[in-house]
Amino acid sequence: MPQGQPSVVPDDSLTTRQRRNRPLLLVHTGDGKGKSTAAFGLALRGWNQGFRIGVFQFVKSAKWRIGEQTVLERLGDLHTETGEGGPVEWHKMGSGWSWSRKAGSDADHAQAAAEGWTEIKRRLAAESHQLYILDEFTYPINWGWVDIDDVVETLTNRPGHQHVVITGRRADPKLTEIADLVTEMQKIKHPMDAGQKGQRGIEW
């Protein structure tokens, strides 16, 4: 894509503007580091454009507060206070979603994942957000907690102008097939290979 020009222009009867402004489904997968980090970086861009942002973290513990959450929630507060940027919602599945506030355990994770996906479907139908980040969503799909065919149908037919980013290893082929952008993070080297644990400001 030299100078941002697409290598192929499809015969789809759309104008350049219409084609450029289509809502996108993005998948960040692979065994390398950076899948969620890239998604949250995109959220910063979206916030700057005034997007309504919804982050839904599957699998992550509700007690684990990553740096990006603090920053994006503060930007959401800034929007409320000044009107700058866009509104931000951040939800984690770990001990029950923030809208349900119920205690969770390992036995509850499958139900919580299904509940989270049901809520996301409701929000997609209502066009609640302009950018959805479904962090580590590939795992509940792979574990059978969320039906991949339902995900494919819902995302393919979502209304309006809603971008969706999905992160996690081993993305289902059905998901990558319908995605507009798929990036595979490949690990070449990692400090943990040399016995070094994660550190502040790098991993969280």
Automatic annotation (TrEMBL):
InterPro entries: CblAdoTrfase_CobA (IPR003724), P-loop_NTPase (IPR027417). Keywords: Transferase. Residues 1-22 are annotated as: Disordered. Pfam families: CobA_CobO_BtuR. SUPFAM superfamilies: P-loop containing nucleoside triphosphate hydrolases. One of its GO terms (molecular function) is corrinoid adenosyltransferase activity. Its EC number is 2.5.1.17. PANTHER family: CORRINOID ADENOSYLTRANSFERASE. This is Cob(I)yrinic acid a,c-diamide adenosyltransferase. The gene is cobO.
